[in-house]
Specification:
Pfam families: ABC_tran. Belongs to the ABC transporter superfamily. Keywords: Amino-acid transport, ATP-binding, Cell membrane, Membrane, Nucleotide-binding, Transport. This protein is α/β, with parallel strands linked by helices. The protein is built from 10 helices and 10 strands. The strands form 2 sheets. It has a 6-stranded mixed β-sheet with strand order 6-7-8-3-9-10, with helices on both faces. It is globular, with a radius of gyration of 18 Å. The chain starts with 11 loop residues before the first strand and ends in an 8-residue tail after the last helix.
Length: about 260
């Protein structure tokens, strides 16, 4: 961890301590230490193959940590033994939603049916929260237009919007999102940024603020949304601090990421 890391004032909602993950014979995470402050957006950046997506999947229990501790709201959610099964359903029930890079939508179901499946509190379309739907349609109008279309017939960008909307259909305490802007048109990216800002402020129907851990390669999005940033390299977090400080330090960007954020605006 960077020795110059500052202490953030918000309490951590999610904490990873010394997390290792093996996938088959491959050792992917090598002792990840990460803190995600409550009510903030934490960006998880790094070169391709650094371990960012594996970190999200390990948090959700899709891949099991072989060593270390993962705690949500002070309670351990990682399996205590390598022989224990993944706990993804239990983890989701705590109010954690995950948007994978591959979107995770059901191609044969309609947009409406995809959202219904993601809404734990509804068993039929008429039971979906109308105000919440209107809020989603305001940011992603294509979902309303293609409400009864099979999700598999949507464009790549529309599928990504649907995947994000599935995570937002109900209030969540923590969102884990893997490259949400991938495949989206610039105008939709701006809508996504505003939607996540509203969630962080608790502005969606006056709900409590939502905490976000976001993997992103679009640095305009990272700079616009991030309060905190953690940079990964070779399966470890090698820097953590304020997003603004990284965005303003091109030398640090080059050292940690091998590029300048200014060149990707």
């Amino acid at each position: 961890m960077n020795a110059n890391t500052t202490i953030h004032s918000a309490p951590s909602l999610l904490t990873l301590q010394g997390v290792h993950t093996h996938i088959g014979a491959y050792h992917i995470l090598h002792g990840v230490d990460l803190e995600v402050p409550a009510g903030q957006v934490t960006m998880l950046l790094g070169r391709n193959g650094a371990g960012k997506s594996t970190t999200l999947r390990t948090i959700m229990g899709l891949w099991q940590a072989s060593l270390g501790r993962i705690a949500f709201d002070g309670q351990q959610i990682s399996a205590s033994s390598p022989r224990e099964p993944a706990q993804t359903p239990e983890i989701a029930q705590r109010g954690i939603a995950y948007v994978p890079e591959n979107m995770g939508i059901f191609a044969d179901l309609s947009v409406a049916e995809n959202l219904l499946l993601a809404a734990r509190g509804a068993r039929r379309l008429s039971e979906l929260d109308g105000q919440r739907l209107d809020w989603l349609f305001g940011h992603f109008p294509a979902l309303k237009k293609f409400w009864l279309y099979p999700a598999g017939k949507l464009s790549g960008g529309q599928k990504q919007m649907l995947a994000i909307a599935r995570a937002l259909i109900e209030p969540r305490r923590l969102l884990l999102i893997d490259e949400p802007s991938k495949g989206l048109a610039p105008a939709i990216i701006l809508n996504l940024i505003e939607a996540l800002r509203e969630l962080k402020r608790g502005g969606a129907q006056g709900q409590a603020p939502t905490t976000v851990l976001l993997v992103e390669q679009n640095f305009m999005v990272a700079r616009a949304l991030g309060d905190r940033v953690a940079v990964m390299d070779n399966g470890r977090v090698v820097h953590a601090g304020a997003m603004q400080a990284l965005a303003e330090d091109e030398t640090l960007q080059q050292r940690l990421l091998g590029l300048s954020l200014a060149a990707h605006q």
